[in-house]
Amino acid sequence: VGISSSGATGNVQTTTRTFNTGANYVYNSILADQVTGSGLPATANTLTIANTFGKVSLTNNIALTSTSNTGALLLSNGLCDANTHDITIPHNGYLVATSGDFYNNSGSIVCTNAATISGTVNLYPTVTINGATSFSNTSTIQNTLALNTNSSVSSAPNYAVNSTLQYNQGGSITRGNEWNATSGIGYPHHVLISNATTLDISSSNSAQINGDVTISPSSALTMNAMTGTFTIGGNLNINGPLTLSTVSGGDLLVGGNWTKTSGIAFTSNGRKVSFNGINPQTVQITGGGIETFHQLQINNSSTGTSSGVLLAASSGANATKVNVASNLILTSGKLNTNGNEIFVQNDATSAITGYAAMHSSTAPSYVIGNLRRKVSTTTMGAYQFPLGTDAGKYEVAEININSNADVDNLMANFTEFNPSCPYASNLPNFTVTPANGSIPTPVDNMLNSGYYIVEPYDAANTLIASPTINYDATMTFNGHTNGVQAVTLAPKCYTIIKRSSSCTGNWSLAGGTLNTTTQQGTAGASATITAKLSGLTSFSQFGAGFNSNGDILPVELADFSVTLKNDNADLKWITASERNTDKFEIERSVDGIIFEKLAETAAAGNSNYLVNYNYSDENVKALNVKVIYYRLRQVDLDGSASYSNVKSVSLNKNFNAMTIEGVYPNPFMQSIKVKISMQIATTLTYELYDSKGAIILSKTMEADKGENTITISNLDELARGIYLLKMNDGVNTHTSVLQKQ
Question: Considering only 154-163, 187-196, 210-219, 436-445, which range has the smallest mean pLDDT?
Fold first, then answer.
């Protein structure tokens, strides 16, 4: 059934006959598969496969010489099995398929120069072209189409799933007709760039690949000035330089893994890289290192645990960190740093976008692990950290910076309680006693979902032990099972608590000021809770503390005030909650040291709502003193008692309790600082007016005796012009004229 010098009956024997290399060879058995035989010459005019039974297998390489359009290689019936051998089509030669086809991916077809492939044919062998080649629109690359030096494609084939278009020309080339579509004819599956080839894909406005793109060592890919996106459905393997478009719109979309060899150049040119896969994706630098994106979008739609985008493990040789020079866009899917970190190097508060807002119970996209953000030392503002867990817990922290002298960046993560740091190992045990006279409340429990870790670093990413910073912390907690259930004012039951980085450290307010009026949440064991603590100056671990009995924590702004009205001192105070309270005793002093009981009033007893109280101390001017001091003594049913802070009122209008020592900067931009010296501790009110007399903002606060510095922030949105700042201590008012730049 073949041509052989010896062998089975049916073979054409060559021992007594020589076959001409210019002859035409036809294999047309109707009874069995055939082999070409070792006697088939290495060169022939044509080779015709016409086996109607099955297949014809090559036993050696063959170079064909015919340039007839009927085909140097004619597949008229049956299957051709190249069987690891080469079939060479001559310059201007034809491969014609009428009813035949190829058998499998073994072997190769080599077009020495210009060639034509026509008919309906599945090109399973590797097709290597070395000149201008035309493919019929019914031909399909099943394995590899390799473009060698000086080759081009005048009309493109179809590309089967898992087939590869290989650019092997060497030097600089531009994408042509071989890849000119986003579906069907001319739409490759995989692309391989090899042999020191630099491929410019900007010949059309956009480009798309359904499979992988691989840049081999010494090769490169550039988008040049492409105005549209480059979409890669599969993996991107970067072993040679990758350069994105130099113009807006030329972004890169990757549906698979990002793998780059350490030390290889990636130039983003200000473009966005979007990970938009439907399956989990990884980002890895082989050999380890830092990958820097200009804009990075997470838009992965995979679901469940281990879904989203994963950085290579920090413990391995390929540990990968990610820097984002401009914006991190969290659209869909989790970004798991896997023990590494992602560093957003833009200090704008808006540098991270797309994530769910504070107090959301779930979120489509967030960071699992370490999220580092650069912060400003000149423009104060609120930096949010959208964090969470692989199990779907969404936890977002906001650090609203009031002043910052030396912190370059903050790194945050959310850590679930675990066997090495269990929830019950060191529960909080302290009381909250606000400065305005509310009643102390114990904090003896915390939400069991986990805790935040926030740490400050300098520009060299060295941890700062004692930063010079003041900030407010607002944090959302989800995934717990032990929240307060029995009260209607649930958000007022919580406070942010803080401890050192050790799991055995003691929880406290750490000098912060609690104001539960701005917190969010509802009653329920698993209800989303957002808590806030103001005026913090250090970092470490943060949790959400509460009282095990469900008591509402004292409200900083619940108000205890004393004002002079005619000859009377009017006292007013509000409680946010009471528990077993019997009465309030009002005490008075003329020197702030020795107090005497003046009167008493019955208390509400037990309440989970605001209760207002008042008392008038009549004809106080008859005491003939400049200042009178008051305090409240709360007495419970069991006889225990606690005191409020001391309040004072000036009886002499000529008595100047407040001295303004400085208001700066003037002109101002984002904030104002007011330095005040107080003769006594008292309540201050400041108001900011525009040039038309409209109040821009107003705030009442407590000032201590001695030096005080008040910071008025978030003024950057004010229009340029003249403003008046009025400071009032209850008796005297001081007005400053300021200019907004």
Answer: 436-445
Q: Tell how far CA 327 is from the center of its chain.
A: 9
Give per-residue pLDDT as tens, 41-95. Answer: 899 999 999 999 999 999 999 999 999 999 999 999 999 999 999 999 999 999 9
Q: Which residues contact 340 (CB under 8 A, 6 or more apart)?
A: 311, 312, 313, 314, 319, 320, 321, 322, 369, 370
Rounded to two decimals, what is the model's pTM? 0.74
Can you give 474-496 as a three-state secondary structure string?
EEEECCCCCCCCCCCCHHHHEEE
Of the CA atoms within 13 Å of residue 248, those in its CB half-sphere come to 0
d(CA 694, CA 612): 31
Peptide bond before 422: cis, by omega within 30 degrees of 0?
Answer: no
pLDDT of residue 466: 93
CB burial readout 157-192, b (16+ within 10 A) else e: bbbeeebbbbbbbbeebebebbbbbeeebbbbbbbb
Cα(539)–Cα(556) distance, integer angstroms: 22
Among left, alpha and beta (phi > 0; psi -120 to 50; other), residue 191 is: beta
> What is the C-alpha to C-alpha distance for residues 639 and 173, in angstroms, rounded to an integer?
91
Residue 34's H or E segment, with its range, is strand 34-35
Instruction: Give the phi and the psi of residue 695 in degrees, each rounded to 5.
Output: -75, 120
3-state secondary structure of 577: coil
> What are the Cα distances from residue 201, in Å, to 176, 220, 251, 295?
8, 11, 13, 21
In the block, tokens 């002109």 appear at: 667
Paired residues of 707 in beta bridges: 677
From the CB of residue 232, how many other CB atoms can be counted at a distance below 10 Å?
23
Secondary structure (3-state) at 695: strand
Dist CA 230 CA 238 (whole Å): 15
Residue 159 phi/psi, 5-degree rounding, is: -125, 125
Identify whether 667 is preceded by a cis peptide bond (ω within 30 of 0).
yes
Whole-angstrom Cα distance, residue 672 to residue 739? 11
CA–CA gap between residue 45 and residue 43 (Å, rounded)? 7
- Whole-number Cα distances in Å, 693 to 6, 55, 74, 670: 113, 96, 94, 21
Report the pLDDT averaged over residues 721-736. Answer: 76
Q: Mention every residue, 6+ apart, whose C-beta is less than 8 A from residue 580.
A: 605, 606, 636, 637, 638
- Which pLDDT tens digit goes with each residue over 492-527? 678 899 998 778 888 987 777 776 666 788 778 899
Six token digits for residue 290 = 């830092």
Residue appearing with tokens 């900083």: 556
pLDDT digits (tens, 9 = 90+) for 570-589: 998 877 566 667 889 999 99
Q: What is the pLDDT of residue 438?
A: 43
| Phi, psi dihedrals of residue 179, rounded to the nearest 5° | -145, 85
In eight-state DSSP terms, residue 177 is G
**The pair of three-digit structure tokens given for residue 334, joined into one six-digit string:** 């989790």
- Beta carbons of 38 and 19 less than 8 angstroms apart: no
